[in-house]
Amino acid sequence: MGRGAIIAAALLLLGAGPARAAEPDAALAAVLEDPAADAAARGRAVAEAAARTDAGFGDSRVAVRMILHDGRGRTSERALRLLTLEGTGEDGAGDRTLIVFDEPRSERGTALLTWTLPGDDDQWLYLPALKRVKRIAARNRSGPFVGSEFAYEDLTEEQVDAFEWRHEGVEGCSLGECHRVERIPVEPWSGYSRQVAWYDREALRLVRVEYFDRKGDLLKVLEATEWERSPEGYWRARRMDMRNELTGRRTELLWEPHAFGTGLDADDFTPEALERVR
C-alpha cells in the first residue's frame, strides 16, 4: 500500500498519494448506504477504500523538481528522486520510501529513508557533509524537511490506523465531487490537531488536504493537480502545491512520469545503504 508519503504520501507524500483507476468499491458503497453507519464509520470506509486502490504496484521510481517560494517572490529549486518499495503487509509492515537530492550541489546526496511500521514509523536522514546517518525521533517529525513547507511527518505513509476519521459529506472539488473527511492524528507527537481531506468520488484520489496546527488554526493547504493515468492504471498528480497560510511561503512539487516494477528490493532501503546513495 503506497498512499502516504506525499513526496512520499503525502509526497507519497506522502498524504497526496497515488490512486488506481477505481472500479466501484462494494465495501465502501455498503457503508455509505447503511443508514446505521455513523460519520466515523463512513470516514474510515473512505480511507480504507482509498488505500485499496493502490495495491500491487511493487516498486516505483520518479524524478521530482521542488520549487521553494519564500512569500516575497523569490524562489529556489531542488532536484530529487523518490524510490518506493511496496510493503508486504506481513506483521503490519508498510511501504519503504527513499528521497535522494541531486541538486543543488550543496545538498547532493542528502537522503531521507522512511519505514512504515505498525504503531510508529522509522525515519533516518543522511547528511553527506557530516558523513553520518541520523535517526529522526518521533517528537521531531513535526519540523520542516530541508526548509520546505513539508514536515517530516508529511513524508510518511498514510496509515488508516494513524487517524480517527469522520465523514463530513460530499461536496464539489477540483475533480468534480469529493468525499470531505476529517482525520485526527492519534500520535501525541503530531504537529497537527486535525486535517481535512478531499477524496474524489471517481477514483478516490486525494486532491486537497487542510492542516490545522495544535492551536486549531489553519496552518497549511496541500493541493494536487494535473492528474495523469499511467499505463499500469495508476493515477498520479504531476503537480502538488503546499501553501503555508500563516507565512505565505509555499513549496511546489513537479513530478515526472513514474516508472513501476524497476527491480528495487529491501536491500536498497536500509540505513546502511544511505551512505552508498548516489
Which features characterize this protein?
single chain, 278 residues, mainly beta, 15-stranded antiparallel sheet, 42% strand, disordered N terminus
Describe this structure in words.
- The protein has 278 residues and is mainly beta.
- It has a 15-stranded antiparallel sheet that branches.
- Strand 11 and strand 12 form a beta hairpin.
- It is globular, with a radius of gyration of 18 Å.
- The N terminus is likely disordered.
Q: Brief description of this entry?
A:
8% of the residues lie in helices and 42% in strands. With 278 residues, it is mainly beta. It has a 15-stranded antiparallel sheet that branches.
Helix count from the secondary structure assignment: 2
Shape: globular
Order of helices and strands: EHHEEEEEEEEEEEEEE
Radius of gyration, in Å, reads 18 Å
> What's the overall average pLDDT, rounded?
84
Binned strand content:
35-45%
Helical content stands at under 10%
Q: How far apart are the first and last residues' alpha carbons, in Å?
A: 26 Å
**What is the tally of beta strands?**
15
Reported for the largest beta sheet, the result is:
15 strands, antiparallel
- Assembly context of the chains: single chain
Q: Helix/strand-derived class?
A: mainly beta
Outline the low-pLDDT stretches. 1-18
